[in-house]
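Q: What would this complex look like in 3D?
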Amino acid sequence: MNGRRLTDGQFAWLLMVPGVALFLAIIAYPLVSALVTGFFEQSLVRPGRSFVGLANFADLLGGDFWPVLSNTLVFTLGATIAPFVIGYALALALDAGLPGWLRGVFLFPWVIPGVVVSFLWLWIFNANYGVLNGLLGTQVSWLGDPVTAMVAVIVTKTWASFPWMMVMLLAGLQTMPKELHEAAAVDGAGAVRRFRSVTVPHMRHIAGIAFLLEFIWNFQHFDTIYVLTGGGPAGATKTFAVAVYDTAFKGFDLGHATALGGLWMLLLLVLMVFYLRKENT
Amino acid sequence: MNTLNRRAVLRLAGLSALGAAVAACAPDAAGGGAPKGDAAAKAFGFTSWSLNEEAQKGAVQAVLDAYAARAKVTINPASFPYNEYLNQVTLKLRGGQLTGAVQLDISWLAALAAMGRLKDLGAQAAGGGYTDVALGSGQFGGKQLGLPWTTGSIGLVANTELLKKAGVDGMPATVEEFEAALRKVAKLGGGITPYAAATKAAQLKDILPWMRTFGSPLLEGDTITVGDDASVAAVEWYKKLYDDKLIAPDVDRFDARALFAQGKAAFYDDAIITRGVVASQSPDKSLTEKMAPLARPVLKAGDTPQALLWGHVIVVVDGEGSDAAADFAAYATSDTATVASFFEKVKLPPTTTAGLADPKVSGDTFTADWTEKITKTATANPFWRYAGYAQIEAAIAEQVQAVLVGRSPAKEALAKAAETARPLQK
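A: Here is my prediction, written as structure tokens for the whole assembly.
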């Protein structure tokens, strides 16, 4: 070989080239292109576009943005807190000696694809021939009422995601030295006191990370809501993900859709900053 | 330790770039790639929602198989559910990934035509023997962009057995009589929905013929009249039916068909396809004999019953395999033996004079009855002329749903719907 040798630094940069190229092609370019589109009036079905400045953002902030933000926050909080509580309780029970095979049973909802889970619950919640009404002997329109529809999507998402929360928290619990509990017990601490003074402080970091990750994922969640309610009734479950999809691919309005996506991304960036700061601590 | 020199690294980079370029140029699963004309193409795609519906897919597949054997070509089928179809087809067409023949609802033609990628099928239409009404459903901007596959209407269907049990004599002719019939059916109990009307946003466009029944033209010139007194009265009446449980929440076309097929609904709205669908879903094999089409009740005696023109066309995407696909479209829609056999299986009326005259079609009393009571007065949705028609309907549907669930009064909701719809009139 008679070519010039590369330094380690140059070689490292070359190794990064494919990754960077892919990043530029499939993330950076579409992202920048989408953000730019937010400043144009552009249709999915008509050729051409015209610059409208901040008009798309002004339209959204003057109307659709706020109910969508409110729905997204309600869904995100509900679909994060409920699986967190259930997952924590099950993790504690498993750590305390619940048979190990139950861990596999509890994981079952997590391995079912999200769309399949959503269709299962769609059938359960159907007002006219659903399982839930059959069991209760009622004829409630679970998905047709704004309040119960939101509860239904939160329940469905909770069922699908509590196992992940359980696994994360169980892993955290299993790193906790048993001696801490034993010492506290010797000092006369009961179960509740041991949970509050030993378990909670030990789990604070991992629980915080798990909660924040789940919150971020739910903030972007799409499939459960789209399958179950399509954002309805009357927009009552329309979150950012559904609104952007509807605006772009049903309304064919790329300008407003990307403007809404840009605002959504800004909010997600705030959450990302929280996450990164949490990780670094 | 081995080290790489610059030449080796450049060689590696070159190979990687070549690999990436090859991957980027690889055709997609649907046989996409750069469109190019090919009169002698031996393969083309056919995209259809009917291939996704149990009641029809066998009959459609039989048409594909027969043509493939006859013309010695390969047809690559693709399908999406009806409610997602326009969206998927639009995206694929925009991305250059849709080729060949494509089944379309006649209401979607303007949206697809706006993209400027559909082939003019004037030559095929000229020799097809289609009726004028049918041909009109495939025309846009002075061009024949679709060949009509079936032309009919969407109207009301009744379960005569349930009506008889409820003590309803004869078919209701006015809105007042219709509501009275629903109240009688409601008294039957047993989980029966008197009228399985659409209440989910996806099919709430079914309220448009009711708005017309109450006297709203929907569109006058280019002025949207949704929000006028007549349309408000129609929505308030619909809300009354909803509150009184004469129509059920959470129902779209598919739920309505399921309810009707189970004998759990006395009325519902559907196209003439209803008989085939209900027959395939119902445990009661005699239910189709108890089904009867009825003219939509009018506000006052003497008014014209409202019904929505309905149908499917086959369009062809310009480019790869388009000539072969156009020949297939002509065969599927105008070959008399094919359309008569298709009718026999799925009860979709053909669109050619010869097809309609075939004894299998002309001798069918349900179809004759449907044509007389519903199709005869059917008219096109005035919003179909706009590429954004689906969004206009969605805007109206969302606001009607807001009224049904008690979020908005009808007047305010419809005013908002009209305001949202106005910029979409292009």
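A: To summarize the key features: Chain A has a mean pLDDT of 89. The interface with chain B takes residues 1-6, 11, 14, 17-18, 21, 44-47, 126-129, 139, 141-146, 230, 232-236, 249-253 of chain A (CB under 8 Å).
Q: Very helpful, thank you.
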